[in-house]
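During the no-cost extension, the postdoctoral fellow (Dr. R.K.) reprocessed legacy sequence entries with the updated structure-token encoder. One reprocessed record is reproduced below for audit purposes.
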Amino acid sequence: MATQLPLRLRSALALVTGAGSGIGRAVSLRLAREGAAVAACDLDGAAAQETVRLLGGPGSKEGAPGGNHAAFQADVSEAGTPRRLLKQVQACFSRPPSVVVSCAGITRDEFLLHMTEDDWDKVIAVNLKGIFLVTQAAAQALVSSGCHGSIINISSIVGKVGNMGQTNYAASKAGVIGLTQTAARELARHGIRCNSILPGFIATPMTQKVPQKVLDKVTRMIPMGHLGDPQDVADVVTFLASEDSGYITGASVEVTGGLFM
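Re-encoded structure tokens follow.
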């Protein structure tokens, strides 16, 4: 008879942004299965509540614990909002989150020759500024409370190799890598680890907007022969959140099925 492995995150509180769908929802579910209490945050408050419902709590009211979990609505790109979010999470759970996973992200694709400044600004605001604000607020909360933690930022393989029609997205995701590596250097002395994950093409609502003929072409380029699943990313997040990765910080882990290796 197989023995059940101990839950790796039994005492953890995890804040997940972009938790209402795709990778963020898969991460929330995976962390909860490992024993973590989850603060699920999304710009779409109803989607965050649905995630909490899937975690096993009613999620009937914003900020109200559903079992060990709670839903929050926030626009991470707005100045001051991530700091208020951290205060709300601390008030709800009586402690700062020891695991912070930034999954919130958007695309506004267009070729460089035609991209508007507004589309550039929106993507940078959510994908890069938002991660900066959440990382900063989480680090401040952890340092002030004397707690250790693990901050995990979702970048993209596009931030490393670029992609047609995504100058704004590629720039934002490249910025996340540099931000995370620098934060790792600064925060290690406080017992806070910072790592980034670089997904390839993952089957999410974001990739569902890509024309099928483009997805077919991309799939042929992936050595493993298929798109990734959000669970593939969530598994790596769980490893980086746990003490199994206790000596890893400043890393950028590619989850791509071998694409662009």
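DSSP finds eight helices and seven strands in the chain. The chain has a mean pLDDT of 93. The remaining legacy entries will be reprocessed before the final report is submitted.
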